[in-house]
Design brief:
Number of domains: 2
Largest sheet: 7 strands, mixed
Oligomer: single chain
Structural class: alpha/beta
Shape: globular
Number of helices: 14
Bound molecules: glutamic acid
CATH architecture of the largest domain: 3-Layer(aba) Sandwich
Strand content: 5-15%
Length: about 400
């Protein structure tokens, strides 16, 4: 019998971040000394006080199906967090808890996008945004930026990208993969354009908000004219070293939240009971509890930037948040290094994997074909060894 997969899955690209992480894992299992700098995953353990909350939840027999949109106590904790950290007013009926922020984003796309709708993606953007839009048969429209503008788009570019078919913009600050953080003024300038287009919704992905090295975060929903059409996405994976626990959440207009719950009710039901209980404890803790991780990430950012600056041909900027550097490697295009012809960022990333045993992710997957993403959510020792190896290969 022939294998007849749907057109949908056949046209879906694999996640470049997860694919590279899987490849690095596979090579390691074969005995290769691979240093994985591909995945955006804190290398810390989940803090003890959160683990204890999870153990307590198991002992207290939290084992039943959870409400589809999340435990009431968790939704209340999310509202308190939104007020405390973001000065955003949400009530529990505007909150939906999901199995990771990725599911939150997929829910939003599924409930708002029709085939043929256009989704604006300021580039560089996280790899799954475009795939999630494609799954809704929507078209994604990239708004390009470069390292010369610190990977920020301008209001003029936003205006030029809007058409009568534009339905949404996926906005992400601090940004994965560039680490860029937009200022309040820049948010307001973009909002001024959107004010003229009342039918465009904003998905504001703020998952990296706490991985911030001194810049001020802002939120689209803080702008009064944007609040009723903004969906604020967040989760505990990055800030609390809880990637595998899979808890994300949204704050949204109630009618959108209700629809996300309806969607989720047919696909996964409520998120994991133990992880939700642990998340209540995580969100109720003062932000100072996780500061040691942010301090360590900043130290590593400075180390990796210092080392990369010593390599001729890499163009760098200083990311203000997240845990990635995103160098422009286009100076190497057209060259042959150790027998590998480098035509693009994917070739460059493969060169680093094969010759330096260092896993990175090509910028092509993020809509930035001149760059590669290097995650420094890794030990200082691994960062230092990786960059020494990269330097050797490139010189
Ligand atoms: N968001 C992380 C990253 O960009 C995790 C992998 C993923 O889900 O893409 O590396």
């Amino acid at each position: 019998m022939s294998q007849q997969l749907s057109d949908r899955i056949q046209s879906l690209p694999v996640s470049a971040t997860l694919a590279m992480a899987a490849k690095a894992r596979e090579l390691k299992q074969q005995g290769k000394d691979i240093i994985g700098l591909s995945l955006g995953e804190p290398d810390f353990n989940t803090p003890e006080f959160i683990k204890e909350a999870a153990i307590k939840a198991v002992q207290e027999n939290y084992n039943s199906y959870t409400p589809v949109d999340g435990y009431q106590e968790l939704k209340e904790a999310v509202c308190t967090k939104f007020k405390r950290d973001n000065n955003l007013d949400y009530t529990p009926n505007q909150i939906v808890v999901s199995t990771g922020a990725k599911q939150s984003i997929a829910n939003i796309a599924q409930v708002l996008l029709n085939p043929g709708d256009e989704v604006l993606l300021p580039a560089p953007y996280w790899v799954s945004y475009s795939a999630i839009a494609l799954l809704c048969e929507a078209k994604f429209v990239e708004i390009p930026s470069s390292i010369d503008t610190n990977f920020k788009i301008t209001p003029e570019q936003l205006e030029a990208a809007i058409t009568p078919k534009t339905k949404m913009i996926f906005f992400n600050s601090p940004n994965n993969p560039s680490g860029t953080i937009y200022t309040e003024k820049e948010y307001r300038a973009l909002a001024a354009v959107l004010e003229n287009y009342p039918n465009i919704y904003i998905l504001s992905d703020e998952i990296y908000e706490h991985i911030n090295y001194g810049a001020k975060n802002f939120s689209f929903a803080r702008i009064r004219s944007m609040y009723d059409r903004t969906i604020t996405v967040n989760g505990v994976a990055k800030a609390f070293a809880m990637t595998g626990w899979r808890i994300g959440y949204i704050g949204a207009p109630e009618w959108i939240a209700k629809s996300c719950t309806k969607m989720q009710g047919q696909i996964t039901s409520g998120a994991n009971c133990i992880a939700q209980r642990a998340t209540i404890t995580a969100l109720e803790a003062p932000v100072s509890e996780i500061q040691y991780m942010v301090t360590e990430f900043k130290k590593r950012r400075d180390i990796i930037l210092g080392l990369l600056k010593e390599i001729d041909g890499l163009k760098l900027n200083t990311p203000k948040g997240a845990f990635y550097v995103f160098p422009d490697v286009s100076a190497f295009f057209g060259k042959t290094i150790k027998g590998h012809k480098i035509n693009n960022a994917s070739d460059f990333s493969m060169l680093l994997l094969e010759e330096a045993n260092v896993a990175t992710v090509t910028g092509e997957a993020f809509g930035a074909p001149n760059c590669i993403r290097i995650s420094y959510a890794a030990s200082e020792e691994n960062i230092r060894t990786a960059i020494v190896r990269i330097k050797e290969v490139l010189s």
